Amino acid sequence: MGDLCAVVLAAGEGQRLRPLTGTVPKALCPVGNVPLLDLALARVAGFGLSGPADVAVNASYLGDQVVAHTGDRAHLSVEPDHPLGTSGGLGNLRDWIGGRGVMVANADAYLAGGDPRRILDGWDGETVRLLGQPVSEHRPGLFSGHRFVGLSLLPWRRVRDLAATPAELVHTVWRPAEADGELDVVPFDGVFFDTGTPRDYLAANLHAAAGGNLVAGTVTGRCVRSVVGDGAIVAGDVTDSVVWPGAVVAAGERLDHVIRAGQQLTVPGR
């Protein structure tokens, strides 16, 4: 893997997840009681990529939290003024990438089942590859009838000229490569949620719970098909919901298909 590195994109503001992301960056929102960033780092580790020589994480919005959480597990690229987007974030890392191909992993992608490692099978280091799921209906944003599921491979020649200015890979790399006949989509047959909305974020958590409960906190009430974070207290009734670490569900409260953060913040998930 000496000619390949990985970049985990964790700088986004998570605007569609507000107010949950008002004080916590999207990359650190937990799914199945594991921060999304940790799931992404584990995903790239499945390709044999780990440590600051081979894995980078970018940070911007509430970046101090991302930096502290990442620690020495990856090279850190801080975008201090505002997020540079998926393309600008890579441009800011060109010196660190240093001639290697790049696996780009979106921190907010939840993948389960299937085998994302297929994206690397037979890759010649010259084409752009996207992991995708087939979509039956026609809609904007697809690639050869597939929706992108948060993992891509980029050759160095497509990265070396990227600027460290706000831009997105769909415009600077993916669509140009597609126009050149140099973009391949590798089908992913597992489960994918982008976790960018409360509905999809809740759905990813319920999938992680697999029809049961994932409890790291204290439950003295009733908990059905829900995820309860570390240090959370559930004294009321919780069904098909997520209770964040340290959050409280008081006796007499009934939560159904929501995300609870803190003592009173309740975000509908449907």
Net shape? globular
CATH C-level label of the largest domain: Alpha Beta
Secondary structure tally: strands? 22
Major sheet: arrangement of strands: 5-4-1-6-9-8-10
| Overall mean pLDDT | 96
**Total tally of structural domains:** 2
What are the segments in which pLDDT stays under 50 over at least 5 consecutive residues? none
Keywords: Nucleotidyltransferase, Transferase
Domain Nucleotidyl transferase: 6-81
GO molecular function: nucleotidyltransferase activity
Protein name: MurNAc alpha-1-phosphate uridylyltransferase
Description:
It is a single chain. The protein has 2 domains: about 5-195, Alpha-Beta Complex (Spore Coat Polysaccharide Biosynthesis Protein SpsA, Chain A); about 200-270, no CATH class. About 20% of the residues lie in helices and about 30% in strands. It contains 7 helices and 22 strands. The strands form 6 sheets. The chain has a 7-stranded mixed sheet, with helices on both faces. Strands 12-15-18-21-22 form a 5-stranded mixed sheet. β21 (about 260) and β22 form a beta hairpin. This is MurNAc alpha-1-phosphate uridylyltransferase. GO terms for molecular function: nucleotidyltransferase activity.
Helices, strands, pairings?
Blueprint: E1 4-9, E2 30-31, E3 34-35, H1 36-45, E4 55-59, H2 63-70, E5 75-78, H3 85-91, H4 94-97, E6 101-106, E7 110-112, E8 128-134, E9 146-154, H5 156-159, H6 169-179, E10 183-187, E11 191-193, H7 198-209, E12 214-215, E13 218-219, E14 222-224, E15 227-228, E16 233-234, E17 237-239, E18 242-243, E19 248-249, E20 254-256, E21 258-261, E22 265-268
Parallel strand pairs: 1-4, 1-6, 4-5, 8-10, 12-15, 13-16, 14-17, 15-18, 16-19, 17-20, 18-21
Antiparallel strand pairs: 2-3, 6-9, 7-11, 8-9, 21-22
Helix pairs in contact: 3-6
